[in-house]
Amino acid sequence: MNAFRYPNYFFRLFTYFIRFTGYYLFALVLFTLNRIALLFRFAPSEIYLEFKSDLIKVFWMGFRFDTQIILYAGLPLILAAFICALFKENGNSYFNTFFLGYGLLTISILSALLIFDQQYYSFFKSHYDALVFGIIEDDTQAVIKSMWTDHPVIRVFLILLLCILLSFFILRKIIKSKRPLFFSNKTLVNIGAAIFFLGFIFLGLRGSVSTFPLENDDTTVSESAFLNFLTPNAIFCLNEAFKEKEKGFNDFDNNNLLTSFGYGSTDEAILEYYGSMRPYDPNLLFSKTPENPVLQTHPPHVVFVLMESFSNYYLDFNQETNFNLLGSLEQHFKQDILFRNFVSDENGTIPSLENLMTSVPYHPIAQTKYKRVQLPTSVAIPYKKAGYETIFITGGKLGWRNLNDFVPKQGFDQIYGQAAIKRKIKNAETNEWGVYDEYLFQFAKGLLKENTGKPKFIFMLTTSNHTPYQRPEHYKPYPIIITDNIKQLTNNNPLTLDNFTSFQYSANCFGDFMTVIKNSPLKENTIVTATGDHNTLMLFQYDEQSLKQKRGVPLYLYAPSIYLNNKTIDIKRFGSHKDIFPTLFNISLSNQRYFNSGNDLLSNDSSILFFGKNENNMASAQSGAILEFSSKNPRFFDWKNEQPNKLKEEENASLGNQDLLKKTKSRQFLIQYYFNNFLKNSN
After folding, report:
1. Tens-place pLDDT, residues 53-97
2. What is the domain extent for residue 202?
3. What is the DSSP letter of 478?
4. CB neighbour list of residue 632: distance below 8 Å, 6 or more residues apart
């Protein structure tokens, strides 16, 4: 890198431009190879049969997304080119030093993000999204251990090291080039050439020659969800995740909310949701349970269990003899109420917990300045006002995600975590995430059996069915035989058996808990319900025909018959997390006001549209399903007659799906509108 004189400013500038072009092309090759690796590692087989022609669109649009990211990363190099070209003597040395150092740094970072994104997809079945912040906001030590046990960490870092060494070698080669990209003895021609080059840079940064620059909407190029996933790159998606996280707690502007949902006023949303006009006020979404003499004289204990990664889809594989995923829970699933047309409202543990506890649509609120704000929508408040002891128990640490700050403010009198359980149960064993589930349920049983003269409302969170998939040494699993079919469906994932066995362990712990309840006086006055916080996406690929399975969690309900009188039990009804507490309130509380987040699944009202929703994205009902229901261009699906749980996309929305769209979109709008006003006024 010895300094030498170039005779002309433009000669020097265009020489640096060609080095930048080499940087760009090398980075583009890495991005493209990463996309090819994703395709070969994770693409479902039908991609090559049904959507082969879409691959060209994917790689063309992917090229545009990659170009945009690489050019943004390389902007300092372009600026350095203009500055260093001013120096005749040492400009080349200055530029080469900066080019090698900065180029190696940025390509190393980009390579790391691309490679880590492959492993992120292997678990979450998406590029980086808002859940990625859990790595920092979660129990970081436990996350790191899970990463070490569940991912080929050494191999990943060896690949990354190879990329870095290759980058160093290529960049060293590039800086030895001495021929300019273009050069003329005419100044005006050189100026024109420089402007032309910068024009290409500008177009690359926009990613588009149309009115709007490249944006998230441009990722949809196919009917295949996987190919649409493949289109953007990890860095673009990470940037979108940051935007989403930032927006969640800074944009409480209801005018923006109206625009994003396509409403001209709140009246339009109210009319769509309620079917009639009524004025908006903060009490609009609150309801009151009917007066019930039985509940007044015999108030039940109420136990709600939020189970880690409790998948609905896994239940389809359950066989008592050789693929037993439920253990002792199976008998209770057969005896009691089990809703299978059910999905989670959110896709992570803390979003689901916050949403179920308070209906708040912005997450993670417990890790913001609002963590000590009491939300009037909390499910503990109606029970507290009815004279209940309100109790929260987790097998994990109470400091996780600031639960120790957030939960007490939501009306819970007592909160217990790993430390309290270990103090009470001396032999309680732990893993990275807390005490094993059997000790959590043992602790809860002890609280229920204590006679304090008050009914108890207990909100529980399990932790054991989580990577790194550990179980107590004394646990003897029921048989799980991994067949060739399972191996094919899970793509020979080495964690398949551990994953299924941890699911079984957690289910069996809950089943043992229910057995104790039913074999004690508690069976007469205790209501128990359980659901999953989210499905686990580690083992299976889900296409757009399987939207319900992808986001599915079961809802289990046990209630003594005295509390189910005059109720309609229809397990085919559709629902999601939003419906759990409106259902519980109406079978456990008399004349109590509550935040009506959804439907009473045991209602006798046949006119109710029972539906499930997941985030602001998916909704499902008897009529079919909708993707992107809160966007300007929702997509509609109908159930296949020959495959009842499979969907097919509609060209035109059926009347049932039109009603579903109105209901889901207006409900989501009204809830966000309520919380926008409340949180804005609580600052």
Report:
1. 889 999 999 999 999 999 999 999 999 999 998 887 788 899 999
2. 9-246
3. P
4. 262
